[in-house]
Protein: ABC transporter permease
Organism: Streptomyces gardneri
Amino acid sequence: MDAAVTSAPTPTPHPVPATGPDGRTAPADPPSGAGRPPRAAGRTPRPHRARRENLAGYLFMSPWIAGFLLLTAGPMVASLYFAFTDYNLFDAPQWIGLDNFTEMFGDPRWRTSVEITGWYVVIGTPLKLAAALGVALLLNQSRRGQGFYRAAFYAPSLIGASVSIAIVWRAIFSDGAAVDRAQQVFGMDAGGWIGDPDRIIYALVALTVWQFGAPMVIFLAGLKQVPRELYEAAQVDGASPWRRFWHITLPMISPVLFFNVLLETIHSFQIFGSAYIIGSQGNACGPADGTLVYTCYLYIQGFENSRMGLASAMAWMLLLAVGLVTAVLFWSQRRWVHYEEGAR
């Protein structure tokens, strides 16, 4: 009998239902996997789906990626190599180390191009931004025909960079042309600006200022964001229009002003077409190098003198200069650019 009791299977205990504080029986936990909806047949797993979406995105981006590698990154790497070689576009490049940079720094015409470009950036950019901000302030007032005036002031930015406008501008400032006759009326000395090495750069600056449409539109968008309540409160306190502009308008649009200053400064360093066309009179870039901006001299060395190695070295010096000026502007914005809290 003891053997029978010993060999009897031990009964499996049944789970006791748990009871809550109110005496009710709580439902038992469902078995593992119970209650889940069955996976639909043919559904793609999530990792495979993500890879397929990424592949589609890269396919759509492939034209831009190919263009960037072939037309931007590739030529930049090649020009960095050519900057240390003697290369004339026809023969194989020969490594010469820093000779191009040494020759460039010792070239008085290169120093002239740096001076003219620096003068153009320092004078032309502020005048262009001042004209753009002034017209934007006028267009920000409610008046009839605003759409027409905005389009009319923006139009020069669309056509100002064309070759035809540069040719027309050169004709306007030539001897006996409209500007020459106008200055004679005011008792000024006769003579066109195009043939004068000291005044031809002013014609180039005037063309740049005339193309203020793009920064004007950006300024106008920033002015629309300034709350009118600030002007009304300042006017009630007796603030003059100048004080309202200096203490309300400028701080409120300072991020937009910084953007325009940065963009127009970079564009000023890159000027070429108008300087080359306005100054071309038998020799490129003006009489006595009056419009010899940096990019114009780079073009002369690279394509007229077939010294592509020296031109590549000049191009990289221009890139470093623009990068340095951009870094200084970003550093200085902490002192005069005011962002909304959390927007920086």
